[in-house]
Amino acid sequence: MKNQSFKHLQVLMLLVLLWLLPLSPITLAQTSPSANGQYQTLLKKISCPEDLADNGSYRDYGLYHEADGDYCGSAVPTRGYWVYVAPHWYIWQDKVLQPNQTRLLKQVKLKAQTLTLEMIYFKPHKAWAEQILNYAAKSIQDLESLSGRAYPGQNPYPIEEKADMGGLLGLASGAGMHLVSPPKGTPWTLVHEVVHIWNAGTEPAWVREGQANYLSWLIMQKNKFPFVGDETLPAFLRDWQEVRGTEDDLLLEKYDELPQGKAMEYWLLHHELFGSDFIWQAFGFALDHEDLQVADWKIFLKRWTPQDAQKLLSGWVNTGPYLVKKAEDFGPLKYPVSGAR
After folding, report:
1. Global pTM?
2. What are the contacts of 95-98 at 24+ separation with CB within 8 A?
3. What H or E segment, with its residue span, contains residue 68?
4. Highest mean pLDDT among 74-78, 219-223, 336-340
5. Model pLDDT for residues 106-162, shown as the tens digit of each residue
6. Which of 290, 304, 276 has the alpha carbon at shortest distance from 217?
7. What is the residue-wise DSSP string for 254-320?
């Protein structure tokens, strides 16, 4: 009887705790429209009950760029910090700095405007933040110049250091960027995310991420920015070569299941065949075809070679054996890329 009574008491205590839980300060803080005071100056509140399934009853989405200025049938700011408290989205203008955070600003001269970069970082990392802003400024200038495409992002453009991003190293769009703290927040990660200021909306992933990896590597090389540890193009290529020809060697459409080196090898191969003009025009072509189809890509390839473009697709983009594994399989290696192998 003592054991049975104890079990009944345990059950009763659990029910009481579950009943009290919704009243706890922790739960109330987690459902605050301002994310517990992280954001200030409310710009808009919109009703969107259909987002409950994807976001749950509460989500701090953070900085978001809604290019169309319309969401859930309501006019919304193109830029803001979004918090979902079902069934409403709260859109805030500014992020409130925490006691261990501070800001650093840098002016960047672009073709049509002067851009302000705004870095929010943890106070002990000032030297890293200054370096990151310098690399970001030069990378944005280079991307605008080399691609021929004007800077498309917000002005000012926020870059925020994050202590933890759940396994991610960075995340960016035209609205802003998050970059994980050093030592993982490296210059190459930063420049990769800078490319996403232009192509965050590009699909498929092997084009978006593959170009971000390869173009950022070119900019790193051009400016002699430092690579960290094994973070090198040859290392990426070796990772892929270890699975090439095995059952794990999938088409590029399965980008998330592949070593990143396969997509980088694909862009490198075309660089060696057709030169840097091809690489930057391909970037512009992808920007103009945000949901790039294989048929579109084949049309683009035909502009550069009289040979059968299928040779550059088989095994890479289309099902079939590799007809071209390296540039010399297709034609003369006209444009060797220094430091790639």
Report:
1. 0.81
2. 95/38, 95/39, 95/40, 95/63, 95/120, 95/158, 95/160, 96/37, 96/38, 96/39, 96/40
3. none
4. 219-223
5. 999 999 999 999 999 999 999 999 999 999 999 999 999 999 999 999 888 999 999
6. 276
7. GGGGS-THHHHHHHHHHHHHH-HHHHHHHHHHHHHSSB--HHHHHHHHHTT-SS-GGGGTBTTTBSS
Strand, helix or coil at 45?
strand
Element (H, E) at 185: none
Phi, psi torsion values for 159, nearest 5 degrees: -125, 120
- Tell me the domains of the chain and their CATH numbers: 27-95 (no CATH), 101-200 (1.10.390.10), 233-329 (no CATH)
Q: Considering only CA atoms, which of 253, 259, 266, 212 is closest in space to residue 235?
A: 259
By three-state DSSP, how is residue 61 classified? strand
Q: Which two tokens stand for residue 262?
A: 């396969």
Q: In a 3-state reduction of DSSP, which class is residue 206?
A: helix
* Tokens read off for 132: 């990151």
Residues 6+ apart with CB under 8 A from 284: 147, 148, 149
197 against 19, higher pLDDT: 197
Question: Residues 6 or more apart from 328 whose CB is under 8 A from it?
Answer: none
- What is the distance between the alpha carbons of residues 227 and 235, in angstroms, rounded to a whole number? 12
What Cα–Cα distance (Å) separates residue 125 from each residue in 162, 181, 306? 12, 8, 53
* DSSP strand pairing (176-180 vs 70-71): unpaired
244: how many CB neighbours lie within 10 A of its CB?
A: 16
Paired residues of 71 in beta bridges: 74
CA distance readout (Å), 336 to 1, 36, 195, 213, 331: 84, 54, 23, 18, 13
DSSP secondary structure string for all residues of 72-122: TTEE--SEEEEEEETTEEEEEEEEPPPTTEEEEEEEEE-SS-EEEEEEEEE
Q: How many angstroms separate the CA atoms of 216 and 211, rounded?
A: 8
CA distances from 94 to 136, 141, 175 (A): 22, 26, 13
Residues in the chain: 341
